[in-house]
Amino acid sequence: MEGTLSDVSQVFDRFKAAFTRNDLSTCTTLLSQLKVMLTGFPSLPPLYCESPTAIHELTLARDIFEHAVVLSVKTEDQDAFERDFLQLKPYYTDTRDLIPPSAQEYPILGLNLLRLLVQNRIAEFHTELELLSPEALENPCIKHAVELEQSFMEGAYNRVLSARQAVPHETYVYFMDLLAKTVRDEIAGCSEKAYDYLSLQDAKQILMFSSNQDLEEYVTEEHPEWEIRNGCVYFQKAKESAPSKEIPSLQLINQTLGYARELERIV
Amino acid sequence: MATQDVEMKDSAAAPSNSSAPSPPPVLTHLKNVSALIEKGVVTKEVRLMIRAIRHIMTLRRKIKASHVLAFLKQLLPPGSEVASRLLLYFPKEDEKDMEVDSPSSTSQTVPSKHTILPELEIFAYLLVLIFLIDQKQYNEAKNCSSAAISRLKQFNRRTLDVLAARLYFYYSYSYELTDSLVEIRGTLLALHRTATLRHDELGQETLLNLLLRNYLHYNLYDQAEKLRSKAPRFEAHSNQQFCRYLYYLGRIRTIQLEYTDAKESLLQAARKAPASARGFRIQCNKWAAIVRLLLGEIPERTTFMQNGMKKALSPYFELTNAVRIGDLDLFRSVADKYSKTFSADRTHNLIVRLRHNVIRTGLRNISISYSRISLVDVAAKLRLNSATPVADAQSIVAKAIRDGAIDATIDHANGWMLSKETGDVYSTNEPQLAFNSRIAFCLNMHNEAVRALRFPPNAHKKERESAEKRRERQQQEQELAKHIAEEDDDEF
């Protein structure tokens, strides 16, 4: 076992060297090698066999997966992020009694929360949140994500955007950029319903475009139903919930027949 | 939760101490119960087993160490493995006590019976377990329950199912009391699988609930939901277990933001729960109140004023008030004031979610009262503590409009919000739909009530007799007809 452990450490050192050089393609190939090598350790989840080197192996494996998660952010690969994070998660939850906590734990958990927010998986976001202890919720990295979600739900979008300036960790920037796009779509959706029209100047400001050109491109691409004339953006409103003019007779007949049938059974 | 086990109705535990004054009444009761179990095994009648369990629950408060000891000595063959194991839990000095109590019982032991029914053996385990838990000897209870479960695994008898289900419950309960639930998760899963393979539906029901409880104890909502959605479902056998299931389901749904479904399950759980299960109903009501608030509904005042729940629900009552008024400051102060309670109830994260509902309600109130109001005033009224209140207010209002919380438009150039006239709800199909759902509910309730009726077990026998009679009669008629026909023939 000792031999493989030192092998893994060696490869991992090479990986870290490439990582600091920002040589992402080397990192990726080394990472897949590392993951294959990790399968040789019986002390890792889900087996948790006890062995004298178990603590060392667990710590090493956790370190590798933490790097993998950060790497996936750097390569901007969300699927890889999810995969790596799920592999990492048992090291945070199930091995708490075996190895000392990692300094990277909260930044990475916060990052995951942010990802769920960006992908609009709010239910999972809250499920993850329930797993965190009150101390964890006080951590700036986690708090950042939690407050973002709140502002997002409330509709205070400019608070979301200003949060980009105050990211607690450099890896967060990627997701914050993605979030900005989500926010823009949200704002567009809200504006459509809330305003009859907006001047180009205001629309530009609200939707955070730097030039009229960008705005017009966005409108033609995402919302072709909007109309730009006289220096204003008009939102076509298909106002629903108009009072129903006709009686849904077929449905009513069906219901009434249903009642009659049921009543007959009772009497 | 344990309160829920208190039985729903006082079953007819006939006090028969008048006839036999010498042994203590509790002991007589215990003997009656064991006789009931024996009868249940012989007749394979599940109902008798359930009744036996119910008797124990009513006796529970009266049982003393001496009673259990006397009963065990009588029931278990001396020198057997069970006896030696179970009697270990009782200190020696009680023995003397017992002999003074009921000298007749020891002489009554049946030495010829070397083996006892597995049902009775498990019942003995169960009795000791309940006794230990009541005596707060939790570590002993834990050991006892583990021994009982490993013994139980050696049997495969359908008559055991009812007792086994109870045993599972106390097994998990004893581990919960010693805060080591995580240890038995594997065992519970294995038991659930076995129960599924044996079509032991009561066992499945109980174990599924225990597993859900186990997961939720550690806030593992994801795993709980995965198990729940994949476990086989069938019509509930036990009302208590069904209530629990609904409660857990409601909690999972709440966390996953499916508030409408969550509300339904939680309210149903609160309604179905027996009146004596006060702790359980309080929990249900707490969660239901929050879910309703999250849905934008305001729970009625009476929910918080129910008998015996007033004190426990008061934090939630104040919270409701804050949401109803739509006052962010009040909301904040209530949340701070009771933050300990909310953390203990594990509702803290939900309360955080409520903030946006408070804003919504405030906004709705504003929208109703004013036909036109400037965004600066909106921000001031909502008390948004932010650097850019107007921009915040604008986007918050815009989102509320899109989500349909208020019916208004924003005039950006002038910076004000214009509320629209509220339409007449009776010009839409809404009342018809509401009416329909209520009728459907009533009809469904009636149908379920009819289905739940129980008939005496031998009622159909009479019918069969009459069927036999009818056959006889028909035979006679046929013969008669034949005779007539023959006579007819003769005439020709």
Automatic annotation (TrEMBL), chain A:
InterPro entries: 26S_Psome_Rpn12, CSN8_PSD8_EIF3K, PCI_dom. Keywords: Proteasome. PROSITE patterns: PCI (PS50250). Pfam families: CSN8_PSD8_EIF3K. The keyword Transferase does not apply. One of its GO terms (biological process) is proteasome-mediated ubiquitin-dependent protein catabolic process. Coiled coil: none annotated. The keyword Transcription does not apply. GO terms for cellular component: cytosol; nucleus; proteasome regulatory particle, lid subcomplex. Residues 79-251 form the PCI domain. Belongs to the proteasome subunit S14 family. This is PCI domain-containing protein. The lineage of its organism: Eukaryota, Viridiplantae, Streptophyta, Embryophyta, Tracheophyta.
TrEMBL record, chain B:
Residues 1-10, 460-485 have a biased composition (Basic and acidic residues). Residues 1-25, 455-492 are annotated as: Disordered. InterPro entries: CSN3, PCI_dom, PSMD3_C, TPR_PSMD3_N, WH_DNA-bd_sf. One of its GO terms (cellular component) is proteasome regulatory particle, lid subcomplex. Residues 11-20 have a biased composition (Low complexity). GO terms for molecular function: enzyme regulator activity. Pfam families: PCI, Rpn3_C, TPR_PSMD3_N. It comes from the Eukaryota. Keywords: Proteasome. Residues 243-424 form the PCI domain. PROSITE patterns: PCI. One of its GO terms (biological process) is regulation of protein catabolic process. PANTHER family: 26S PROTEASOME NON-ATPASE REGULATORY SUBUNIT 3, 26S PROTEASOME NON-ATPASE REGULATORY SUBUNIT 3/COP9 SIGNALOSOME COMPLEX SUBUNIT 3. Acts as a regulatory subunit of the 26 proteasome which is involved in the ATP-dependent degradation of ubiquitinated proteins. Belongs to the proteasome subunit S3 family. This is PCI domain-containing protein.
